[in-house]
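REQUEST
  id: r-88c1
  op: predict_structure
  target: DUF4783 domain-containing protein
  payload:
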Amino acid sequence: MFCICWHYFGLLKIYMKRISISNILLVTAFMMGLAQAAEAQNAQAIPDVIENIRVSIKMANSKELTTFMGDMVEIQLPDQDRNNYSKTQAEFVLRDFMKKYPPTNFTYIHKVLDKEDFKFTIGEYVYAGGSMRITMVIKPSNSKYQIDSIVIERK
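RESPONSE
  id: r-88c1
  status: 200
  body:
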């Protein structure tokens, strides 16, 4: 709040009313609490997303898996080049892959979840004829985590 007073020479002076230090500290503590709560919410969200992706792959549910993708996703299948696919195309590509190699299990071997700008997972995709490695990069986009790329490789 400002108090406007005219100096006896006619100059305008602006005086700021006293703001107590305790009020400033209170507001600062409140803002820090909000920031920590938002960070905790994001930290809790990624394990849920990672687990839901794991279940979708294990159950060969390509439709559910694409709900964790953005509009475009980069996919590399075994013995093929990387390609960018729309969400709809990705569903069909992954569905065909999972029909050809029906999963019996999918588990994570390694997860990097502490990076702010991306998350990284390596998983083992087990099917009747053996196993493959699936590497995924997951990035925050539109206030949620989305799969940016999937690389499926023979072991």
